[in-house]
Amino acid sequence: MERLQHRITECRRCPRLVAWREEVARDKRAAFRNEEYWGRPVPSFGDPRARVLVVGLAPAAHGANRTGRMFTGDRSGDWLCRALHRAGFANQPTSDNRNDGLRLTDLFVTAAVRCAPPANKPTPAERNACAPWLDAELDLLDRVRVFVALGSFAWSQTLRILGARGHVIPVPRPRFGHGEEVALDRGLMLVGSYHPSQQNTFTGKLTEEMFDTVWARARQLAGANA
Question: Comparing C-alpha atoms, which of 188, 194, 175, 203 is closest to residue 83?
Answer without folding.
Answer: 194
